[in-house]
Amino acid sequence: MSQADSITILLVDDEDMVLTSIRSFLAIETDYHVLTYTSPRQALSDLDHHAIDLVISDYLMPEMDGITFLSKVKEKYPQAPRILLTGYADKENAIKAINDVGLYQYIEKPWNNDDLHLIIRNGLEKTILLKRLEQKIHEVEKAQQELGEVQKQILRLFQ
Amino acid sequence: MTRRPVSDEELERYQTLRNLMESVLESSEDGIVLVNEQGRIIAANQTFRRFYGLENRDPLGLDLQDTRASAQCRFEDPAEAVTLFTEMFTLRDPVIRRSLQLLEPEPRVISFYARPVIDHDGRTLGRISIHTDITEERKLQNELVQAEKMASLGLLVAGIAHEINTPIGSINSNNDILIRSVGKMRDFLSCAQCPPEVSENPEVIKIMKILEEINQNNRMACDRIINIIRSLKNFARLDDSEKKKVNIHDGLDSTLTLVHHQLKNRIRVVKEYGDLPEIECYPNQLNQVFMNLLVNAGQAMPEQGTLTIKTFRDRDSVVVTISDTGVGIAKENLRRIFDPGFTTKGVGVGTGLGLSICSKIIQDHHGKIEVESEVGKGTTFTLTLPLQL
Predict the structure, then answer these.
(1) For A116, which residue in chain B has the nearest alpha carbon?
(2) Whole-structure pTM over 0.90, yes or no?
(3) Interface touch B162/A113, C-beta < 8 Å
(4) Which end of chain B is less congested by CB atoms within 10 angstroms, N or C?
């Protein structure tokens, strides 16, 4: 719970109905914080205000395609797994993108919610582990610092 | 003209000529029949006899009635038979080429015409009619039309599948969410914290039951739609072969072979092929474009003409021009020729989709298709295709 509370997912699709569907699904099955955008441009300009842990994007959008969008997100959050939501006939592009932008996975429309959930969970696991590691390192550093303080105090007492 | 004795030499020459004429008639692949002024058959070659099932009878001397009675043939449209035989035997005017469908003795499509036979003095001796078996030609033509129809249907289906995909994806997901939500509601109703006034309320029980039923129903309906879309996608991909690197001269040449029967001897084909690198493309789709343009060029030249296919490289593109010396396209039509459904060919000849499909395919290849035309002079289509797709 405490882990999931801190998870933020960025979801972009030019079709509002897709956003509503996926957001509702994640709301009922998870505690992730989901940011939804119909405009990839708006999503990019808002990236400064939120830290994100995972990003899901549609492929065919009028402003820019999903691969371009994901590569821009990668610049800012390289560790966030990138998932491409592809419609019919975009599969080839998706496979190309796996290498081009280091795609974590692609999901074909119409998607299956269980698959979607599994892919998101697996993708996040990596981020969560990295985050936890960072947290532990931070804790260890903090403990070490505290220990150093205590050590200094003890030394001072003996002087 | 006074009669004089015929010498042996003349008789021999006459015999030789007669034999020659007979051999010519008999070896023709076209059915040939001659009818005299009195409406009786004076010559009918074996091809003619074969076409109309007259092999068991000597057709010489038969008139219209006799021929109709003894011909062992059946037409798809019996009224056509009446017209055919009447025109062969009785009409004075030339009959322009028309076609008929025979069912028996062999299923055949016959194209025939008839003209008066006139001697040196301008006297009408009778009529000749020539019957050509165009079954194969017709079959190929129909295949072409069919291919065009399938291609346009493929585009339509692909478009529909694409458009339906997103909304059905959403509905399917939403229905799944409903099933999950109702499941959670059910869990809540059966847990200890839930007050019995709620969990045992008959209205609540009834609504829960209805919700669960219709959700299941929706799931089945969604599955069915998704399956249908999947099959439509497969259908649309049927002719969508793999992307390959090819030399487009191969495609042009094989397409020329296919349309050869439409160009026949009346159209001279000039190939001015440049030195081209291989390009990345969907060869089947490009061949479909070539096919369309070549057939159009052939149709634009109803009489004689020259079809010129030129290719060359232009920086990062290859350029193909297909020119005809045909009737040309009127200025007011030039703008609309790539519009779906636009045709000047008339019902049954064109679907009005050929060039719109071409334009779509070239677009998909990130290329350009352009047209230049002058009425009475001819038309040139220019295709520009990038080396890399």
Answers:
(1) B173
(2) no
(3) no
(4) N
